[in-house]
Amino acid sequence: MKNNLFFIVFALCFGLISTAQNVEFEEYDLDNGMHVILHQDNSAPVVTVSVMYHVGAKDEDPERTGFAHFFEHLLFEGTENIERGEWFKIVSSNGGTNNANTTDDRTYYYEVFPSNNVELGLWMESERLLHPVINQIGVDTQNEVVKEEKRLRVDNQPYGNLLAEVKKRLFKVHPYKGTTIGEMEHLDAATLEEFQAFNKKYYVPNNAVLVVAGDIDKPKVKAMIEDYFGPIPRGADVNRDLPREEPITEAMTGTAYDPNIQIPAVIAAYRTPSFKERDSYVLNMISSYLSGGKSSVLYKKIVDEQKQALAVQAVNISQEDYGIYALFGLPLGDVELQTLIDEMDEEIVKLQNELISERDYEKLQNQFESQFVSSNSSVEGIANSLARYYMLYGDTNLINDQINIYRSITREDIRDVAKKYLNPNQRLILEYLPKNDDQ
Q: pTM (2 decimals)?
């Protein structure tokens, strides 16, 4: 249930490109507004049933943060027809696996079953939507589960609060300034009626997309979908009017402390555009150029040759409304944090004023072609991509077309986007330091 915030590029061999296949799918709407996407692949007797809801941490009341992630857990508690504690037993006893995850923008649930259990997966997801049991026992139980997760993955994890410290400084008014897991005191203070109201508002068919992918008989699955999901009443439309951020025009600095670390870190963070924007794709390529593997520019220079850092990374953490572009470094020995910033800045300036080499450009194109092949290599991955591209990008066929955006990016685009977004007056420099008794 942990969501992965970093964009990772795997440099596979160029020969994989020829294996890329167009992903065929069919999509339609039920009368209640639920969007349905079907992908038939009869090569293996496996099926993925998934539902993505357009609700994430950004949709929460600022005094009730953590609700979206809480519901990721809460809606496994049981339904009117699935007894409390039985969800996972039903899945495993029928040869399946299941999970869920939450981001600031959406919540995603899925089951993977042998294909002869596709109807079971559809029934269970329809139960989650139509007959959830949201009572005080479930709320109290999952409250303790979420608190333990926060302790393990955030509070007691080295560098676990690093992104949260960046977000609350980089965003002033947009709810991205908060964390996905939320504040525990908000969950403690919430009433049962508030949880039930959240469910009623966001867990409705017209705020969801259902994907069934794998070894299916489409006419039969369509009939099942109509039987299980068709009767679910449409909910009120979800309207969003989130505040917009003013551009960053002056450099910001900050210091944060972490009792779980011994080695300080430094981050240069820039606010960047939505992942729907072409510039975000270019920033992904810049990240790969700078730190995608041991032969990348920053690793080779700062870690390998100059031995100034234990680790360096450039990453574009882009979301539905905005992104964060971050340069991260862990110093080696007594190297100053500012030295790492200066060394990383030097490479950014080169990007802004010089075209990368043709060889490096071809390498980037090969990496992204390979990533495209990998992303469509499993039915489970295809189901996730179909849901995500429909709901968050508004274009399901990006599962096939997104690679063409990367193919269209030129060396000049890389230079110009670096100039547009990665400037000293547009960023936050955060020193993330070990906490001692004096802090």
A: 0.93
